[in-house]
Amino acid sequence: LPVGTSGRVLVLRSGGIDSPVAAYLAMKRGTKAHYVHFHSAPYTSDASIAKVQRLVHVLARHQGSSRVAVVPFGDCQREIVSLCPERLRVVLYRRMMLRTAERIARRWRCEALVTGDALNQVASQTLENLAAIDRVAHMPVLRPLVGMDKQEIIVAAERAGTYALSLLPHQDCCSFLQPQHPATR
Prior knowledge:
By secondary structure, this protein is an alpha/beta fold. The chain has helices at about 20-30, 45-65, 75-85, 90-105, 125-135, 150-160, 165, and strands at about 10-15, 30-40, 70, 110-115, 140.
């Protein structure tokens, strides 16, 4: 569908394989994608920020220019670590990311959030955890990859032109202070 005919979305972007594919698939359905990236600097390097900027540039060929918000998240993570059970960290990180992303989305007149979640790919992406994460959102959370397996996502990343860049190493904010045994429910 033509870009923008389905409205605007805010894509929660990591530097990995999945979120660029989610953005690409949302754009194919006519959305105009804007982006938010959470980073843990100064606790991690700025490499993920540069990588996300490069991925956004690659995706721009599918829709033209877009906006990118870069949100410092390390202090929020430290607070969660100091106050909350270890096994709930990632779910709590993601709930805070959705809250923050929603505020940005409303400011930029986006009508939905888009994530690169694929059902049961990692502990935070069980149906129970996705439901717990979504409870803080007051706008639709779209998950174009929800039923895809990793190989299907890789094929889509190659088609979108993001795969090789997504493989470059970086420190992602969800792996920073990650629990050894995350909750699956």
